[in-house]
Write a structure and sequence with these properties.
By secondary structure, the chain is α+β, with helices and mostly antiparallel strands. It has a single domain (2-147), classed as START domain (Alpha-D-Glucose-1,6-Bisphosphate, Chain A, domain 4, 2-Layer Sandwich). Helices cover 29% and strands 47% of the residues. The protein is built from four helices and seven strands; from the N terminus they run βααββββββαα. Helix 2 crosses helix 4 (123-147). It starts with a strand and ends with a helix.
Length: 151
C-alpha cells in the first residue's frame, strides 16, 4: 500500500520541523494515539487504538527516524503489532519546502505492508482507512503548528 500527498502549513519550515519532532504535538495529532514515548532523537515508541472496518485493535510499535538531510527532508521506518488483528511495517519520506516566509509545503511518500486479519479485509478498505487517518493527522498537525504562531 502506498500513500502520497502534500499539505501547505501556515508556519515557517523550522517550526514545522520542530513540531514533527515533538512527541507532545505528535501524540495530539495521531488519531487514536494513547502513548508516545521518545527514547532518543531517532527512536519513538507508540501505542495507538485503531478501527479498520470491523477490526478494532490496540497497536504497539517502534519508529526509527533518519534525520541525515534535516530539516529539509527526513525518513522514518517502523513496525507495529496489533495482536490477533495483525501487524504492519512500513516507512515514509518527508520533505519540507519553504513557500515564502511563513508557509511550508510538506510532502510525503509512505508505504506499508500489513498482515493478519487486517490484510484479509481487502486492500480498498485498508487503503481508504489509511488515507483518512493520514488526512486527519495532517489536518490536526497543520492546525496545531499554525496556532502556535507567536502573537
Amino acid at each position: 500500500m502506498e500513500l502520497t500527498d502534500e499539505i501547505i502549513i501556515k508556519a515557517p519550515k523550522d517550526r514545522v520541523y520542530a513540531a514533527l519532532n515533538d512527541p507532545d504535538v505528535l501524540k495530539q495529532c495521531i488519531p487514536g494515539c494513547e502513548e508516545l514515548i521518545k527514547h532518543s532523537d531517532t527512536e519513538l515508541e507508540a501505542k495507538v487504538v485503531l478501527k479498520v472496518g470491523p477490526v478494532k485493535a490496540r497497536f504497539s510499535g517502534d519508529v526509527q527516524l533518519d534525520t541525515a538531510d534535516a530539516p529539509d527532508a527526513f525518513s522514518l521506518t517502523g513496525q507495529g503489532s496489533g495482536g490477533a488483528a495483525g501487524h504492519a511495517k512500513g516507512g515514509a519520506d518527508v520533505t519540507l519546502t519553504e513557500d515564502g516566509a511563513d508557509r511550508t509545503v510538506l510532502r510525503y511518500e509512505a508505504n506499508a505492508v500489513i498482515g493478519g486479519k487486517l490484510a484479509q479485509l481487502g486492500s480498498r478498505l485498508v487503503q481508504s482507512t489509511a488515507k483518512k487517518l493520514a488526512a486527519k493527522f495532517f489536518e490536526s498537525f497543520a492546525a496545531v503548528v499554525s496556532e502556535d504562531e507567536p502573537a
